[in-house]
User: What shape does this take?
Amino acid sequence: MRILLVEDDVLLGDALQAGLKQAGHAVDWARDGISAETALATEDYAAVVLDLGLPRMSGLEVLRKLRAKKQALPVLILTARDTVEDRIKGLDAGADDYLVKPCDLGELNARLRALLRRAGGQPAPVLAASGITLDPATHAVTYRGKPVELAAKEYALLLALMQQPGRALSRPQLEQHLYAWGDEIGSNAVEVYIHHLRRKLDAEAIRTLRGIGYVIAKDAPA
Amino acid sequence: MKSLRLRLVLLTTAAVAVVWLVTAVFTWRSALHEIEDLLRHPPATARHMQKERADLAGEIAEHLLLPMLYALPGLALVLVVAVGFSLRPLRRLTDEVATRAPDRLTPITSADTPSEIVPLIRRLNALFAEIDRALENERRFTADASHELRTPLAALRAQAQVALAATDGAQRRHALEQIILGCDRATHLVAQLLTLARLDAGTPHAMQDLALRRVAEEILAMSAGDAIACHCDLVLCDGDARVRGDALLLEVLLRNLVENSLRHGGATRIEVSIAPEDARAVLTVVDNGRGIPVDQRERVQQRFCRGAGAVRLDTVPGAGARGHNFCSSAGSGLGLSIVGRIAELHGGTFEIGSPAAGNGALVRLFLPLAATAANAAGADRRRTADH
Assistant: This one.
């Protein structure tokens, strides 16, 4: 998933970026409110981790502007402001979750997973479709009951498709999920990963809709 | 009756007047009686006459004395009540102060305050306001400080977790290096906090006549290592001025200015010059770095505020982590507060500007010259004594 991290502190930002990457996300790091706003306007993110005390434009301002545009994107506030009033203000400004520094990276990742789950309309923590199961917490993937080993990018691509089974995603959309700023993108990287996934799962697991994109079929309601 | 004095005088006078009047009436009546008696039975002989006269004088004196004797305890009682009544506003005031919580420092507002105490209450209220301000500063400072300490702690924790979960050596190494940097930064922050807290506490300072140049030489020599690491030239121009000050504090001040240029300015040259100007000593630190935008010059002097440049703000974010060292590390956000406070303690000021040519930051510190400093301090003392 592609995440926007907004944090002005260099050390903490570096750590969070590394931690989120370890959890398999593509992470863009904006260091002030204006950059965050620009990034939100131009890129497609699955979620935002937002600090409040930012130079140039406060985190709350960024959040209000985002919500004013009716963007439903999950936002998790991560800040050193710990009073109840601050939390209320943050949540009322449109945040979906609020974490106080210093926080545990594991908890941050778990909360992000929960936000992404809810945003995708997936109540179950383990995603399942077309015989594939995917556990975002452990990155464990099975196909027809058998565990499957996936590389990081393959996993990220499968996760994107599994979060909205039945909905086709175009190649540019999938690239958005896979790459952060500054990452090298090969011209046919998505095709290569799809090819790998089909080999590891099943040729039929991921379907190509010519001119539209790729899709994993939704399970018929039982 | 707003005046305590007036109240007491009026009540006492009234009481004495009543007793006096009663005595006078009593004496008048008994004297009248005695004189009538004397006229009715005039004394036959001169000896009788003399005796009668002595008796009469004695009677009058007795009648003058007796009522006074009976009235005195009454008078005392009246006075006790009167004084108690007069001092009631004072007691109410005492109660109000006594029942006050230590953190409730609102001004005392008593409707019927005796005019003698009004100046005292005014002084008290002024003191309350001052203490309240100091307490509020303290509270804000503590809140800000804990807030500021949280971020480096969060960074340390997160970096440690990244290091633990890292699968390749390079990533682990990077995270561990970041942890060391984070510790250095937290140490710097704590040191700056302590400096500021000591300055705020107003600890007495060792003031002496000193040459500003000596301070500058000391600090520039100490900063040489950092400057070389940041590929920056340090220059001390000719010129000197004598000021009255605390050498250690002035060193702290100058170190903060030089560190600011090194840390946040991205400067390759820092120039320090000292010169007397209009009866003031002017110390100028000028660099050729990014400078401080005009609209931020006020803001960066506030506590815990970092200039946008201080965090290496890139307009194109996500350029990835870069190598961090002293030259690009975030500061505590306290440097200029410390500079301002030390300047204030020396009766001086400082201003932020930009050099006449090219970009960069220019900080000018104004301190009273040694002789004028002594005069100003004297004038200050006299002013205080006048109050």
Q: What stands out?
A: Residues 2-119 of chain A form a domain with the Rossmann fold fold (CATH 3.40.50.2300).
